[in-house]
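Sequence only, no structure available. Ideas?
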Amino acid sequence: MKYMCLIYTDPALTPPMGEKMNEAYFDLNRRLKAAGVMVTGDALQPATTATSVRSRGGKVETMDGPFAETREHLGGYYILDCPDLDQALHWAAQIPGATYGTVEVRPLVVFG
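Reply:
I predicted one. Tokens follow.
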């Protein structure tokens, strides 16, 4: 089963990505790969770089920024291939962003 781990942090409370934080993520990536559960994962540019798109009645609207105003911003994600939710939660708890924010874990729907 594949799970998406969405990493949300409050930029006001999260230390900037520096050598220490990068090394924590690199270490986690090595452990996820060694365990055979990492499918992919990436960091995202800040929410200020986002563009939201809506289509209503055939008309397309674009807006600068994220759609929802929240304190925590989506900063990155992992897709993990784990046998069950318990193992996905085990790995999600080790994501460095969980120390400063929230990691939301959701199973993916696989079509076909």
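The chain has a mean pLDDT of 92.
Hope that gets you unstuck.
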